[in-house]
Amino acid sequence: MQKYLITSREFYTDTPAIFRRILHEQFAEHSPTYALYRDKSNPNYKIQASHFVEVCNQFENVKSFIHRDVDLAKKLGAKGVHLTSSQFERVEYAKELGLEVIISTHTHDEVLKAQKLGADAVTYSPIFTSPNKGEPKGLEDLKELLKKTDIKVFALGGIVESSQVKQIEKSSVYGFASIRYFY
Questions:
Q1: Other Cβ atoms within 10 Å of 120 Cβ, number
Q2: Domain 2-182 belongs in CATH node 3.20.20.70
Q3: Which of 48-55's residues contact partners 24+ apart within 8 Å by CB, and which partners?
Q4: pLDDT tens across 29-75, in order?
Q5: Which residues contact 113 (CB under 8 A, 6 or more apart)?
Q6: Do 156 and 177 form a contact (C-beta atoms < 8 A)?
Q7: Tens digits of per-residue pLDDT, 101-153?
Q8: Domain range list for the chain
Q9: Of 67, 71, 73, 56, nearest to 123 (Cα)?
Q10: How is 114-141 classified by DSSP, letter by letter?
């Protein structure tokens, strides 16, 4: 099962040297195959994103993704972009630039729309209880979704411990994504 590490200012800070050190340590410890730079409030977002891509490139098997900004992802040489659930119209543009596209989804219909538009993968959330993310979907809903789609699905939301990862793994989902699990 694939692992998708998502950064957060809360755990990684916005100080470049500390950010790089923590990110490097987490990659070494957890061996994610996907990683997302996501920090909605960093005034130096572009600079930190470049540090993120540089660290990802030091690990042979880590695919770097930039949150929301298709052009920045392309400029920095990231593997892809992670779009929000309000950016479906950007899927085609990102694909034209040669980027892999992951898009956030919260309903079965959104997942099917992402597949139809040619996204490479989706995050589907929240699976478990997660702060300020609404009612969890649960494992049965995830299993039902996987019967309807061929797109790669990353379970997301409230995944903080190994027992939850083991539960998700039984669903045959492509992978899981988390902030707190990887810190």
A1: 17
A2: yes
A3: 48/14, 48/16, 48/19, 49/76, 49/78, 50/76, 51/16, 51/19, 51/20, 52/7, 52/19, 52/23, 53/77, 53/78, 54/20, 55/20, 55/23, 55/24, 55/27
A4: 999 999 999 998 888 999 999 999 999 999 999 999 999 999 999 99
A5: 88
A6: yes
A7: 999 999 999 999 999 999 999 999 999 988 777 899 999 999 999 999 999 99
A8: 2-182
A9: 67
A10: HHHHT-SEEEE--SS--TTS-S--HHHH
Alpha-carbon dihedral 132, 163, 174, 48, rounded to 10 degrees:
50
Which pLDDT belongs to residue 118?
Answer: 98
Q: Which of 114, 43, 109, 57 is closest to 82 using CA atoms?
A: 114
Name the pLDDT band for 15 (thresholds 50, 70, 90).
confident
Hey, what amino acid is at 120?
D
15's CB contacts (< 8 A; 6+ apart) are none
Return the half-sphere exposure (C-beta side, CA atoms, 13 A cut-off) of residue 179: 15
80: exposed, middle or buried (C-beta count within 10 Å: 0-12, 13-18, 19+)? buried
Residue 31: per-residue pLDDT: 97
pTM (predicted TM-score): 0.95
